[in-house]
Automatic annotation (TrEMBL):
CDD domains attached to this UniProt entry: HTH_LacI (cd01392), PBP1_LacI-like (cd06285)
Keyword tRNA-binding in annotation: no
Record protein name field: HTH-type transcriptional regulator DegA
Annotated organism of origin: Corynebacterium provencense
Keyword match Repressor: yes
Length: 347
């Protein structure tokens, strides 16, 4: 460890220091320190800042966050509370958060507890014990009063991504109400009036909001609500399989199904195949999120695209802004319908 907190280098004899970068870039050491610690300004880097960053990368300079923390009494770390990390959606958000945090000079400390609020509370306590400066959570349960009370008393900034828990807790989410409405309106435009929905677990705001958008689209089209067409399920493939079988076993089964996530939609495809149904000839199907695999399926999936990478990076930007003294803001990101081969006009 050096006096200015650098570790590692492109040289084999000693670490590259801030002084080395300043000397090679022809600027003062304070300029190097400032440029390498700040996020990219709204109007982009100046020529001097670009030169400093290029020189630092070429020399292999790496800041030592431990040394910096000892000097400033700061950890420069962000805690991540992310159950269901094997889910492609959560993994994509996590990767984006990690990239954005590293770019801003922060380290991440990841916890991946079971998707229960007791487990998440324990993980939150662990993150606080490690002196993280802020926390991002992705899988909170809506209307959980005990956890909400705990969040209201946190000593550090906290923001959610993917799901929201309460209007008083800042969140970066997709416009899931609009996404549910878009999916359902498209199926209605194809002539479908018996539209089932595999709606996800009741505790998830993502599924809830998409379900409300589905209901709004039906109401606007004058189609009576039929609660037998609403099946709550888990997010995984098996949840889609079970949900589809429940819907397709009805005396008057749906001619179209909206699954509120792509993984469950894949399960719906499997259930339809087991019943000898052809997608989209016998059953139209829409998913949600546009995870990479669904465009490559034998029947490419029509789905609602949410920008998960932007969601993660926006959450980091908001959290670091609050850590540095700014205000946390909620952000709702737009979604778009991606039409592929799993939907067709009703015959």
């Amino acid at each position: 460890m050096t006096a200015d907190g650098a570790v590692g280098s492109g040289r084999h004899d000693q670490p590259v220091t801030l002084k080395d970068v300043a000397r090679a870039a022809g600027v003062h050491i304070s300029t190097v320190s400032r440029v390498l610690r700040q996020q990219e300004p709204v109007h982009g880097w100046t020529d001097t800042a670009l030169r400093v960053r290029e020189v630092a990368a070429r020399l292999g300079y790496r800041p030592n966050s431990l040394a910096s923390g000892l000097r400033t009494n700061r950890s420069h770390s962000i805690g991540l509370l992310m159950p269901r990390l094997t889910d492609t959606v959560i993994a994509t958000i996590c990767e984006s958060i990690e990239d954005a945090a590293r770019y801003a000079g922060y380290q991440t400390l990841l916890t991946a507890p079971p998707d229960t609020m007791n487990s998440q509370m324990e993980s939150l306590d662990f993150l606080l014990s490690r002196q993280v400066e802020g926390v991002i959570a992705t899988s909170l349960h809506r209307d959980d009063s005990l956890f909400l009370d705990r969040l209201s008393r946190l000593p550090i900034p906290f923001i959610t991504a993917n799901r929201h828990i309460d209007p008083c807790i800042p969140a970066v989410v997709s416009d899931d109400f609009d996404g549910g409405r878009k999916a359902t309106e498209y199926l209605i435009s194809l002539g479908h009036t018996r539209i089932g929905i595999v709606a996800g677990p009741r505790h998830a705001s993502t599924g809830y909001d998409r379900l409300q958008g589905y209901r709004q689209a039906l109401e606007s089209a004058g189609i009576p609500a039929d609660e037998s067409l609403v099946i709550h399920s888990e997010w995984e493939v098996q949840g889609g399989v079970l949900g589809a079988h429940a819907l397709l076993s009805l005396a008057d089964p749906p001619t179209a199904i909206f699954a509120v996530n792509d993984t469950a939609a894949i399960g719906v495809m499997g259930a339809a195949h087991q019943r000898g149904l052809s997608i989209p000839r016998d059953l139209s199907l829409i998913g949600y999120n546009d995870i990479p695999i669904v465009a490559q399926l034998p029947i490419p999936l029509t789905t609602v695209r949410s920008d998960l990478t932007l969601m993660g990076s926006t959450a980091v930007h908001e959290l670091i802004s609050a850590i540095e003294g700014g205000q946390l803001h909620s952000v709702t990101l737009p979604v778009s319908l991606i039409v592929r081969s799993s939907t067709a006009e009703r015959h």
